[in-house]
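User: Quick one: structure for sequence A, then sequence B.

Assistant: Sequence A:
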Amino acid sequence: MKFTTTKYIIITLILIFVLSIFLYIKYYSTAHISSPIKTLPNTDNTAKDQNIAITIHYHEKPPYYITGDLDVYGLCADPVKEIFKQAGIKFRWEKTPAKRQLEIIKENHARDCGLGWYKTSERETFAKYSLPIYQDRGVIAVKKRDNPKKIMSNRPIEEILSNRELTLLLKSGYSDGQFIDDQIAKLNPKRIVTTIEPIGMLKMISLGRADYFFIAEEEAEALTATSGLPKDEFEFIRFSDMPEGNKRYLIFSKMVEDELIEKINKAIQSYKKSN
């Protein structure tokens, strides 16, 4: 049987069409597979386990919680890892912006936990609390050292908050502890409210856009040491009437059973006795 030129063309076109379909399927099956999400290496506590009981949400906040090469660590993270191990409760870390953590706890869709939060009456309306896991050394104010405005240490906090020449820098949605929150509500200082992280707040102080902000002393030390700004550019202001440091807690969505929280609380008590 002889093939005409037309038949050769038709067969060639069919072969090209079939080859095109094959190459398209091969490309689609490889190029459109999602890249794996970068996670911390698997450990007993971070492994993908169907029996994981709680997701612990955290954000970068030296020296309390920091993402390392192998795990999350810090003044709050290290005790919590040991506490959950003692309680026999599996968990996984999830890095979540601070404000979003509170929203997740309030939404109450799963067994969620926020790490290292202060206790406030407003948060107690939607969250369950553990026993305290850490206590700050004390809240101070950070100012620029060469700020010409009068900001002195060892004075009552009312003196700085009632000074209308000074501008307080506040982070939206945050608490500086009940004592300071109450004083701010009472004295209504001139303020700027921001959503930026503490390092950005420190830069605002450096640029003179605000005069001071409140922060725990150990956090201030870590912040000024790692900000990239000259550490001696800033001064720490301590107050004569500041109460002892704020306590930090685990907060849970209401979906977390009381039995689990009780196990965690017993482990917290055991941990504190041995440390």
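Sequence B:
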Amino acid sequence: MNSDVIVIGGGIIGTACAHFLAIKGARVTVLERDHLACGATGSTAAIISISGSGPTSEALLPLSLESYNLILEHLQSFNPPIEIVQGGALYAAMSDKEATAIRPFYEEIHQLGVDCTIMDGAEARRFEPLLADHVACAVFNPASFHVNPFYLGSAYLNTALRGGGRIEYGVEVKEIVTGSDRVQKVVTNRGDFQGDWVVVAGGANTPELLAPHGLQIPIVPARGQVILTEACPPMTNRVLMLVDHLYARQAVSGNFYLGSHTEFVGFDNRITLEKLTAFTRSFTRSIPMLARLRALRFFAGFRPICEDNLPVIGPVPGCSKLIVASGHGRTGVRFSASTGKAVSEMIIDGQTEQAMDAFSPARFVDK
């Protein structure tokens, strides 16, 4: 089973790599052990913004802007349509203490040249009537939108399929065999796969695939619990953000996505009453109408968070044909396009348009 490039992982990063590789003419095989977007991608708010809800590393800022623009540029070619909702993001504070906490968010996006707005409580309430009366202030970032992550992953993958690529489901990678600076084969429960290059985009499972190669990447799973409500008529086209990494967004389908703190509990995917109760209180206190909606589903995903809060993108030391693309934490969708583009440039062009040294796996090799 031969291909130009084997991508391990059918999440948003793996499919984005497949998309941009196919655009450059590569024939890609994606190996997925379960189903498309079964990991962190399927439990993300899928918010794409020039700036997040917290400080963005200086090294990541060019990738943030690039990814934002790339997805907008590719909108017409995405199949299926990705259900983009372009209403901006409103970061709301419900007390004076919270107002102080969100001020750096305004300063960062303002410095990036985004025409953002900071509002007092009365202005925020007029701007977004879903907010509670006691809202203290809010920051509006127009350079933000959200999408359906399942459709975005499918659209990325379909580009590769149209280019002669394929995806294999139910494939569990057992070993990546390397030698003489090349990948000899990828050993799986479904036989061996061979390709000129291999991209490891296994999310929180990436470290176990690379440990046999002497690379100890400090990526850990961070559980994020999510509530999905019943559908209701359109209420807002904005992402509503609260302190402590809480987000509410209404999908095209009418359902509200509510999430999500980060919990370091290993690969424990249990839903906990304690966390969901805390979510519910925070959301209904800040967005009262949510109290009238029934919850349809509770679920959790594992965000791959690296200890230095930077993604890991680049060749494995000792094997230049083995590429890592993981560790994006909560921001995989946000950085998917720029990551996929950079990986395709590493493989096809031998150099990247953006500076990528800060994300190299080599930073974890003992000097």
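The CA atoms of residues 6 and 198 lie 5 Å apart. The chain has a mean pLDDT of 93.

User: Thanks, that's what I needed.
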